[in-house]
Design a protein that fits this description.
8 helices, nine-stranded mixed β-sheet, 26% strand, binds 4'-deoxy-4'-aminopyridoxal-5'-phosphate, 325 residues
Length: 325
């Protein structure tokens, strides 16, 4: 089995026991928040690096704050728990971690305050969420992005993902690969689970936080890598729908999507209609960085799940005594 144990409310328990009641508040009302974090196996297959775990857990703390939730673990503790989880599951492959904090009361009545919060983290093996090579055909969605005063997009709120689900299903059912959502006033916001970048007149451009985007960890990574590695400053500014059609390049980015070039939007080829050079370069650098191939980023961004081993040793499977704790 790929997932042996799950962290739930202070304990590592067998995955088969990590269950909630049908009466759970978070299940009925979407009153929860979560993260999606990737762990990448290193080239020598001896290590799994969790990418920017700290930043993901900082965002989880912010989501909890917005939802009136208590998260009784510090960022450092959550990072440590995540490495432990991968070791308990003996995962020596690319993985996806899903921390989830939710209102756990078994009551009827919608509200945020005065309820008890539960936390779980599970880890599952995961490859590509979408094809990162062929170039996507995206459609501008008829569903508008949720507004900060409706369901704040800067918090990764479970219930808010209904908005993404409407947009994604509409896109797929209409023959596209992914949706691009606009804000209520018609500016480009983001994909269903990705931030968006354009190359316009040679400049990297991305919508600012005020366009109801989730402030992506990958978005931040792209901005930093573009500056440090390519000497390109990203302009955070409002983007009109038709700028999408005029861009030389467009790509989506996110923990799941990684760096995914877009080559067609609403049946119009983007630039040459092939994956553009800046998107390809950023993608190449990103994959090197997340797999820990770049020492200058590894220390800060890549948390090793396993103790560092001498280069001749084989990966060690940890004791899993806590499985039944
Ligand atoms: N926007 C939305 C709506 C998302 O769900 C995600 C995925 N978490 C992103 C953007 C990208 O965020 P990140 O790079 O932190 O994964």
């Amino acid at each position: 089995m790929d997932t042996k144990v799950v962290f739930m409310n202070g304990k590592f328990i067998p995955a088969s026991e990590a269950k909630v009641s049908v009466m759970t508040h978070g299940l009925s009302y979407g009153t929860g928040c979560f993260e999606g974090i990737r762990g990448y196996m290193a080239d020598d297959k001896q290590q799994v690096y969790i990418f920017r775990a700290r930043e993901h857990f900082e965002r989880l703390h912010r989501s909890c704050r917005i939802l009136n939730m208590e998260l009784p673990y510090s960022v450092d503790e959550l990072v440590e728990l995540s490495t432990e989880l991968i070791r308990h599951n003996e995962q020596h492959q690319d993985v996806y971690l899903r921390p989830f904090v939710f209102k756990a009361d078994e009551i009827i009545g919608v509200r945020l305050h005065g309820l008890k919060d539960h936390i779980t983290i599970y880890s599952v093996p995961m490859g590509n969420y979408i094809d990162t090579e062929k170039g996507l055909h995206c459609g501008v969605s008829s569903w508008r992005r949720i507004d900060d005063n409706m369901v704040p997009a800067r918090a990764k709120i479970s219930g808010g993902y209904i908005n993404s689900a409407f947009a994604k299903s509409e896109a797929i059912q209409n023959g596209f690969d992914e949706a691009i959502m606009l804000t209520a006033d018609g500016h480009v916001s983001e994909g269903s689970a990705e931030n968006i970048f354009l190359v316009l007149n040679g400049e990297l451009v991305t919508p600012p936080p005020s366009e109801n985007i989730l402030l992506g960890v990958t978005r931040d990574t792209v901005i930093e890598l573009a500056q440090r590695e390519l000497g390109r400053i990203t302009r955070e500014r409002s983007v009109d729908r038709t700028e999408l059609y005029c861009a030389e390049e467009v790509f989506l980015c996110g923990t799941g999507a990684q760096i995914t070039p877009v080559t067609m939007i609403d049946h119009r080829p983007i630039g040459s209609g092939k994956v553009g050079p800046i998107s390809a370069e950023i993608q190449r650098i990103y994959f090197d960085v997340v797999r820990g191939r770049r020492p200058e980023y590894r220390e800060e961004w890549c948390t090793p799940a396993y103790p560092k081993l001498a280069s001749s040793s084989k990966p060690v499977s940890p004791q899993v005594e806590a499985q039944t704790a």
